[in-house]
Amino acid sequence: MTTASVWTFFRAGLAVLALMPAAALALMPRASGAAPAPRDFSLVKTVPIGGPDKWDYLVYDAGDGRLLVAHGSEVTVLDGASGRIVGRIGGLKGVHGVALVPGLGRGFAANGGGATMFDTARLTPLASVPTAAGADAAVYDPASRHVFVMNGRARSITAIDPGRAAPLATVPFGGKPEFAVADGAGSLFVNREDQAEIVRLDTKGPRIAARWPLPGCVEPQGLALDAAHHWLFSGCSNEKLMVVDARTGHIIDTLPIGRVNDAVLFDARRGMVFTSNSDGTVSRIAETGAGGFAVLPPLRSEPGARTMAFDSRRGRLYLVTADLLPGRRHIRHGSVKVLFLDEARAARYTNRPMN
To answer: Which residues are bridge partners to 233 per DSSP?
Structure first.
């Protein structure tokens, strides 16, 4: 599938893909050491959020238990426990990413050619910060205390000072930036979608510090980090998860996942990687005690649910999709919904010893 068709279908939620057979992701140990037993998740709630008929990234705020959904012309905010809609931050121009700034009570919604700063308590817009064309993912970096916005069409990254609500610098990226993750120590890792590489940005510059190719990966989208082991997990659109050393760029492993992934999460509590895929699956990769990986049977979600967030304490996955019309490249108007998938109660626990 071309970049244009993936963007049109999955960014607008208009894709209809066949479900991947469960056998394709059957339990597959990747290294010596016992893999943890699979922990079942099941759909416990579906929350309709209506129009607009577009969506993108989700962010779970563990501090106040709220889920923020990038939803067309607004950020829709839900109570993460009950699913009740508690607010809508409106007046946006095609919002994609949301970044929260701890301790400041501020969030940033990347939309159009800028980022809208909002009050996280009152859920009201406060200021508009210019970035560049195609503002997409937004990530907060604890080391520099700046927010970074990936400008897809402009092929650049803008650093924002959240205290002054002002842009600090825009760094030419040399390609199309997708999702990014910060390590908290001064590095921001960014997937480059058009050339399949991970780019390391020095956030204190800011400046490009390294480029690491991902051979065999097509259109890397989601990205996550296991900071303790320095492992990056880059989700490729061609059913691959690349495990990359965050210090050297060395490829450690390549693992199978579902089709057209758009979000990757790592949960240190469970030692688990999740990828949400547009084919209606959530792939799971477990870290084994020997420092290897095991592919677990996938979870079922719904077609089109390719972005997600996770409440680690509760053991709850949040995904967003809509009712896809069979045989047509459309969704049913006003059918956008958030799926709540809960971990089986017996499998929940408070901590996982780190290797």
So the answer is: 224, 243
Residues 100 and 25 in one domain: no
Q: Specify whether the CB–CB gap between 194 and 234 falls below 8 A.
A: no
Type and span of the H or E element at 6:
helix 3-6
Query: Nearest Cα to 17, choosing from 305, 334, 340, 265?
Result: 305
Q: Quote the pLDDT of residue 349.
A: 42
pLDDT at 158: 99
Q: What is the pLDDT of residues 152-210, one digit of tens each?
A: 999 999 999 999 999 999 999 999 999 999 999 999 999 999 999 999 999 999 999 99
CA distance readout (Å), 347 to 128, 298, 313: 44, 16, 12
Closest CA to 1 of 13, 15, 19, 20: 15
What is the pLDDT, as a whole number, of residue 330? 86
Question: Which structural domain range is residue 227 located in?
Answer: 17-39+214-306
Per-residue confidence (pLDDT) for residue 289, from 0 to 100 = 77
* Integer Cα distance of 291 and 284 in angstroms: 16
Query: What does the longest C-alpha to C-alpha distance in the chain come to?
Result: 53
Spatial separation of the C-alpha atoms in residues 27 and 46, rounded to whole Å: 28
Closest CA to 52 of 347, 353, 352, 322: 322
Boundary-marking domain end, from 212, 228, 252 = 212
Cα–Cα distance list, 149 to 20, 69, 144 (Å): 33, 17, 14
Residues 281 and 152 placed together within one structural domain of the fold: no
Those residues of the chain that have pLDDT short of 50 are 1-36, 347-355
CA distances to 19, 149, 176, 216, 222 from 36, in Å: 26, 36, 37, 28, 24
For the stretch 53-97, pLDDT in tens is 999 999 999 999 999 999 999 999 999 999 999 999 999 999 999
SS3 82: coil
**174 alpha carbon, distance to own chain's centre:** 22
Whether the Cβ atoms of residue 92 and residue 108 lie closer than 8 Å to each other: no
Residues 33 and 171 in one domain: no
